[in-house]
Amino acid sequence: MQLNLHQTHHEIGDFEGIFKYLTTTFQDGRLKGLHLFPELFLTGYPLQDLVLKKSFIEDYLAFINDLSVWSERQFKAQKNESIALLLGGLTYQFDTMGIPLQIENVIYLLEPGEKIKAIYTKQLLPNYDLYEEKKYFTPGSGPAIFSFENKTIGLLICEDMWFSHLHEIDPVEQLKNHLENNNMHCDLVINLSASPYHLGKQEQRMARAMEISQYLQCPFAYVNRVGAEDEIIFDGQSFVSDGANIVVVAKMFKSDLLSLPLPKFSPPNKDQIRSLTINSNSWNTIFNTRLSADTLKLNQLKNEECHEIIEALILGIDDYSIKNRISKFSIALSGGMDSTLVLVILKLLKERAMRPIELEAVFMPGFFSSSLSYDLSYDLCQNLGIKLTSFPIKFIHSAIKNAYQDCFRDKFENLADENIQSRLRGALIYARSNAVGSMVLNTSNKSELSVGYSTLYGDSVGALSVLGDLYKSEVFNLALYINQQYKNIIPKEIISRAPSAELRENQEDVQSLPPYERLDPILEALLSLRFSPLDLIKKGHRSEEVIKINHLISISEYKRKQFCPIIKVKPKSFGFGYRVPISKKTFNP
Q1: How is domain 303-561 classified at the CATH fold level?
Q2: What predicted TM-score, i.e. pTM, was given to this entire model?
Q3: Which of 16, 20, 32, 39 is catalytic?
Q4: 121: alpha, beta or left, given left = phi > 0 and alpha = psi -120 to 50?
Q5: Catalytic annotation on 448?
Q6: CATH number of the domain located at residue range(s) 2-287 in this protein
Q7: How confident is the model at residue 78 (pLDDT cuts 50, 70, 90)?
Q8: Catalytic residue among 104, 158, 159, 446
Q9: CATH 3.40.50.620 intervals, the chain
Q10: Could you say which of 197, 310, 380, 587 is the most buried, measured as most Cβ atoms within 10 Å of its Cβ?
């Protein structure tokens, strides 16, 4: 039997594009065998409240009808051929008023000459982190198998393979019992997925697939969605396991088609034997950490991890801008590390994009901006071949300061004076955005975002956050990797100079925060390892720093609630998957 895994990506709700893909791909009958498509291939994922919108539902149901008509009329020419399509989609049931009573996440079967029909419903509905499927979907009630070319094929959808203590049923165990009760053996188990990316996710998927493959004693085929949906990245990397090995893997962050003969089950040797796990298959996995054993140090990113993160960020920016019809970008360049890295990543995107992209950098010096900041920004733009425009804010700043003092008869100084500079830069970069139709990308990092070390409506502005899931130390880590790969394209002094917002005389970040080599491990322990402040103090961290940082995280939630989408590259990230009250008590030791 020929096996075909379609690692695809279409814009959410692009029924016309999906229909064209299917009719074009299968118009000449060359592709025989079993064809697998990702979870919710027919709609896109995640849908959120779009799944309830009347116009979406009407268009989707019309699309499903069009697929049936096409299959019965045009696709039927291949009826004598050995071909079947398994596609992820939705089914609806309505009340008499046309309001959805029940929505199911299903696998559809499409065969030549036949109407499209649902043959399996997803049973385990994740409801943690960025998932909220119980809000929308009704779970399936049992296992299902599909017969094709005298092969028995077990069906799973995404979370169904990740049984844990969160769920009352185990679809894999159900499938095994169903097969045994009917005196059947499984020749293949498939999983249609829309599995979001984070560092280390692929290793978890493959390990779990090997467990299931060995448990059911048959090959395992896993097909995943690819592309970016706002802050969520789908990495693809579809694969097939024969039980002992991973036979083939699709591309990362790119559409792909894997075609291969169905492999035979290969019994594992003693070093390859795996048993089904439970505890590691739940929301606990999103609290993975990169802290060293003593939690006093954040482990550096390896070169392959740096490469993976950069590719994910490029995909995130590219898809977001394509889907929002943007081809121009304006970056507020400061001469610091964060805006530098964002501009470099944009340049890497421009070099490989299949469409014209325009980039510009705007340097907006104030009274406290050093000449070195301009020199480094200029050198960087020369290296990248990007135009740099200097737009001073000194005179506007002075005018506002004088007008304020005249109006309120009060001094304009300290935090108010610092923040107005940042807000001026935010306003001006958006003035430029409005004038030329460009997208502004945010340049804040996770360290700053965690503790609120940014100005609301100032340096926190932007349509999309590129670095919001990376600590400052990781930003430097990526910069060093980029210089290693691209012959020191980033001026070395940008990396070596002390971080500063340059909003007052001789300002440095360490005047307000602990050095990032101490701050970042504390943040990682509090946010990702779920340590309490007392746990960290017992581990040797400075009590005054831990208490201050914990307090800053707590009181900065109002800023994060108003922040732009953050490209997710870690298991636990701010944004869609991080929801805590703004108003709450700070829990200190």
Answers
A1: Rossmann fold (3.40.50)
A2: 0.94
A3: 39
A4: beta
A5: no
A6: 3.60.110.10
A7: low
A8: 158
A9: 303-561
A10: 197
